[in-house]
Design brief:
single chain, 397 residues, alpha+beta, Rossmann fold, 8-stranded mixed sheet, 7-stranded antiparallel sheet, elongated
Length: 397
């Protein structure tokens, strides 16, 4: 990344040539070796961190006029904190490659002419003159050390820079998902949206399975752009093709998962079951339980009521230590039956997407990405009144 960004961004190249100790991490530019004075007029060294807004794979621009700072409050030559920095306490998590950088504050100092810096060169020069000026005068030091730290996080599964994570400053939270190997079993309406959401998470690997072909009705509850050539192809092939330019580690197979599919799920850390046939669900659940894989099963049951559609969405989490108990409670339908509410053929795209949202949110809660106040193993949403019912207690007797 270092050579690419320096080669294709003139302002960053000028900063490097000037001697700034520049590196890149988690879609931020980090400038180390920034001298400053503390309140005792002692020399300290900090680092400036600024967001990169990617225009494309090679060119970047500024996110705003602010910068983050790893260090204490910079002081003037008399030991009084510099006032025009707009110093505000701030935390920012970078990757392990920058574990020496502990951001403590954020500065906001707009240029006087038009309130916007022309480029990164002007921005960094401006902040350094304010932060380092007193230290340079008193100690004859320089921020131009000509050091480069080229070690950056190169293990990303994405083919594009994940600027969403850096913009939201949740790099540390996203890292909680990085070691997961996820299985998505069934790529119908809900499974397709689940796959779409999971593709955009940094999980290490996604294995998706569905033997059925992609037909016209699937297109009406499927995320992404439709290509007429997709009709008749296996769903797995369709979705593998749609996302191949987005990330690595996606394996979609036109395959039926059943009791004999242990090799396909070997190494999986979490699974999503998105099938509408009870007997198939039973085989899959029994396999996952036998392999000690925690999973979420989703279901939807819609029917006509007073001239409209009503019904339920279900999200059921099976932790490996209680999975057999929950299976025996019959929370997910395990038989094929005409009157089974979850066997109804009515599927609507927005409800498929909502069901997928509930499932992904629950998974992310389990990983600590989202806050979880009261753990639960089942969530039922009544479409008619939008009331939610959660089950939390597990009676093993």
């Amino acid at each position: 990344m270092f050579q690419k960004l320096v080669s294709h961004n003139e302002d960053i190249r000028q900063l490097v040539e000037k001697g700034y100790a520049i590196s890149f991490d988690s879609n931020y530019m980090v400038i180390r070796d920034i001298p400053y004075l503390d309140s005792d007029r002692q020399l300290q060294t900090g680092a400036i961190v600024t967001k990169l807004e990617f225009v494309d794979q090679k060119r970047v621009t500024q996110h705003n006029h602010q910068v983050s700072f790893a260090g204490g409050p910079p002081c003037d030559i008399d030991g009084v904190p510099i006032l025009n920095l707009g110093d505000t306490p701030h935390n920012l998590a970078l990757s392990e490659n920058c574990n020496d950088i502990v951001v403590q504050r954020i500065f906001s100092n707009k240029p006087k002419n038009n309130g916007k810096f022309a480029d990164f060169r002007e921005k960094i020069d401006s902040y350094v003159s304010i932060i380092s000026g007193p230290a340079m005068e008193l100690y004859n030091v320089s921020p131009y050390t000509f050091k480069t730290v080229e070690k950056v996080d190169s293990d990303s599964v994405f083919n594009f820079h994940d600027t969403l994570t850096s913009r939201a400053e949740i790099t540390d939270l996203s890292a909680k998902l990085e070691n997961d190997v996820i299985a998505v079993i069934g790529l119908g309406g809900t499974g397709a949206y689940l796959l779409d959401f999971l593709v955009k998470t940094p999980v290490r690997e996604i294995r998706a399975f569905d033997l059925d072909p992609f037909h016209v009705h699937n297109a009406f509850r499927s995320p992404g752009k439709l290509d007429k050539a997709e009709f008749g192809k296996a769903k797995a092939e369709v979705y593998r093709s749609r996302y191949k330019n987005f990330r690595t580690g996606l394996y979609a197979e036109p395959k039926l998962i059943d009791a004999s599919s242990d090799n396909d799920l070997d190494g999986v850390t979490f699974a999503f079951v998105c099938v509408d046939k009870g007997s198939s669900r039973a085989d899959i659940i029994d396999l996952l339980i036998s392999m000690g894989i925690p999973f979420i099963d989703v279901g939807m049951g819609l029917h006509r009521k007073q001239g409209s559609l009503s019904g339920q969405l279900r999200t059921t989490y099976f932790p490996k230590e209680h999975a057999q108990v929950l299976r025996d409670k019959g929370l997910a339908p395990l038989k094929d039956g005409q009157d089974d509410i979850y066997k109804t053929n009515i599927q609507i795209g927005e409800l498929n997407a909502l069901n997928a949202c509930f499932a992904v949110i629950r998974f992310k809660q389990l990983r600590g990405f989202y806050f979880e106040e009261n753990p639960y193993h089942q969530l039922i949403l009544e479409v008619g009144d939008f009331q939610m019912v959660k089950e939390s207690e597990i009676d093993e007797n």
